[in-house]
Amino acid sequence: GEASANMSLDALVVGAGISGIYQLHRLRQLGLDAKGVEAGRNIGGTWYWNRYPGARVDSDAALYQYSVEGLWKGWQFSERFPSREEILQYLHYVDETFKVSQHFCFNTRVVRAQFNNTGNFWEVATDGGLTIKTRFLVMCIGFASKPYQPHFKGLEAFEGVLCHTARWPENVEMAGKRVGVIGTGASGVQVIEAAAKVVKDLVVFQRTPNLAFPMRQSMQAEVSRSIYPGIFEQRKKTFGGFDMDFIPKPALEGAAARQAVFDELWNKGGLAFWLGAYDDTLLDDTANDYAYAYWRDKVRQRIHKVELVEKLAPTIKMHPFGTKRPALEQHLYEAFNQDNVTLVDLNESPIDEITSTGVRTKDGTEYALDLLVMATGFDMGTGGYKDIEIVGTNGAVFRDKWANGVKSYLGMLASGFPNMFMVYGPHAPSGFTNAPTCAELQVDWITNCIEYMMKNSLARIEASNKAELDWTQRIDEIGARGLWNRANSWYRGANVPGKVMEHMFWAGGCPSYQKICEEVVESGYDGIMFIKTP
Ligand code: NA7
After folding, report:
1. 17 within 8 A of 143, measured Cβ to Cβ
2. ipTM exceeding cut-off 0.90 for this assembly
3. Is the distance from the beta carbon of residue 207 to the nearest atom of ligand 1 less than 6 Å?
């Protein structure tokens, strides 16, 4: 995009992922002088960065797209769960309509943003030396933009190739190599499946088994897309922004009925067995046990190495089913059946050291590797924000504000940081939802809010302290209702040592979130303070 050393804008969008693309489009539609910056070399966000082999989305194609402006009429995904490559193609297709990529300045990372308290604008500095003055700063950096890499002893000594799933280098191939994978989250599962097909040897270092269920990938015939508008309406009304929702009755109904329901969900594929299950699954331990037992027994049928049965699908659940993000798998358990695939249980023998040639575990075993893959996830929610020096009113720094936990209003505004909006970050339904559903909801709200400010000659918006405290408390209360507290998950910041343990996302689902956001508008922006343009 075009960029001059000093720019003055109405709005700056940070990040060119699913939310940033749409946000910049909406702001330009309003007639604002709006531009974007993006650290990557192109649009795509998550799909730009996570280029490990096997990367694909866990949402159905019909759902994983924008619902607006009839875009669906001109695009057909080829698979039910599209690959990273096809999602990027889709986003470029969207850009033919939105034409926003030309207004993004790529290869540019925001390093600092300082609010001018008298002029009510942000002064933004980038790593390339750009200075941008902007009335509004809209952070579309998502919740998984900062990779997390554990500090293993000896890491720098490794002479093979080391790569994090979210920073996969262009020219690294796995074929014929000895590959190690640390981590079995959604990324780990996908990269394990891709590796098992082509590598010489694969060693998987597992701390917690993933309670993964069948994706049921399929090629999509030229389906009748006329049902899409209905699906787009439907997705706003469900907890996770999908076309399915929790079954509004307890799992404690009769065993036969339950078995039939579980069979149906299992056969549906995708995340149905999680976000389409009985509505007490994530609340009640007994209900949760039923889901776990069904999952365990299904998966066990596919594990042929007896010594792996307890490791991959333990008799007793290690954490409540569904309180860590379940992955979708296509042939994960068959991969572990292969002779050239080894599972190392880190609970029995943790990693002692990374050596020049591979990984050594505490029991003294050395695993020789050419390539070591860190599928170790992200500094979720807060990581991307804390990397930027964001200075609000009175010199307050954003990372200090969040040092003892996230504080926000609606996950979109923060007191002390006027005219800054956040999309798809912490304190929003983000962590549990289909990204386009949540991104559209928040981007539309923010766009309407900015439009309201323009119409009413308002120069400054800020959440009140009280509104922020109340929202933060609400996030906590809703999180505490479920079994979430019993899992060391990234939903609670537990995956990064030293991080505050808290409920990071709105666990109340999309519809309740949308309702609250609408009520705020209807009440005349309750909890929000505005200042008129002088
Ligand atoms: P996740 O879900 O955070 O998975 C990270 C994995 O790495 C998980 O299995 C962790 O085990 C493991 N891990 C993390 N640190 C270590 C150490 N120190 N030693 C061994 N193993 C470790 O990240 P993903 O990238 O897979 O998924 C990201 C999400 O983004 C995905 O769910 C989508 O919603 C989008 P643990 O479970 O903590 O024992």
Report:
1. no
2. yes
3. yes
